[in-house]
């Protein structure tokens, strides 16, 4: 077990680096722009991109929308540039299109029109070169491997938006009455996975499930029943579907579970106990390790996804936010081999 994990504290405005073999924090950046959310590594320029969604708070209750993406040198542990996403506000999800050398970013609102969508940022000029509206607040999204199509998680909205990225137009909606959470896509791009219903703080929803979307037909072709509500999915390199399930007992957060499903049978393979309110999930390139950011615990659980044995817990930031009175101490992550 080797490598480095970089993880942000949303409410602590910090970025920590952990040595996976020793479990030790090796470095910490403590002066990020408020509310760092998602992290993405770009190997070509050897930098990370970090979105800043709000000035403080969280999706359900927050201050003014952010409008920045930090560019971070992971070797120097420095912010080396800032991308301004205006007029797109509330940037969140990040997806890299290596072939076109652009960074796709979701946004929740726009200065000049209603609703959110996606923007494409040229990584040489840092200019916005495309914008595709989704007709509502957009939080996360997936892009097909050919870079032509996207499906958006709109959280509380009762639909998934289908976007044509080449022609910059929304082409359809997939009905999801309960809303959806963080989505993922299979390695071959044929299926996208959306947890539903949307997160309900204080309780586990009735009949939580993963919607399996056929990306060619834009249809729901299967449903994976879950044992608990889910805030996110992630597909490992071998195609296995990792799901972060949260739990509440008597209205109070309890430890969650990292559940793993087979991509063909879509049956449950195994589960591991993790921390409270797991949000972001990532995995090692070989698919052997799963990482779950437990936002209410302010920690990251490292799990062997073959034996489903928790291997390590990285304590990131356990302080409560002075604005929300919640611990929002672990969110976006990047794994370095």
Describe this structure in words.
This protein is mostly beta strands and 337 residues long. The protein has one domain (82-336): 7 Propeller (Methylamine Dehydrogenase, Chain H), CATH 2.130.10. The chain has strands spanning 4-9, 14-19, 25-29, 36-42, 47-54, 57-58, 61-62, 65-73, 78-84, 88-89, 94-97, 102-107, 109-110, 117-122, 128-133, 140-143, 149-153, 159-164, 169-175, 184-185, 191-196, 209-214, 219-225, 229-235, 241-249, 252-261, 268-276, 278-283, 289-294, 299-304, 309-315, 333-336. The strands form 9 sheets. A 4-stranded antiparallel sheet has the order 3-2-1-32, with no helix packed on it. It has a 4-stranded antiparallel sheet with strand order 4-5-8-9, with no helix packed on it.
What descriptors fit this protein?
four-stranded antiparallel sheet; 32 strands; Methylamine Dehydrogenase, Chain H; single chain; globular; 337 residues; mainly beta
| CATH fold-level label | Methylamine Dehydrogenase, Chain H
Known CATH architecture: 7 Propeller
- Rg calc: 18 Å
Low-confidence runs: none
Share of helical residues: under 10%
For the largest beta-sheet, the strand count, sense and barrel status come to: 4 strands, antiparallel
What is the number of domains? 1
Q: What shape does the CA trace take?
A: globular
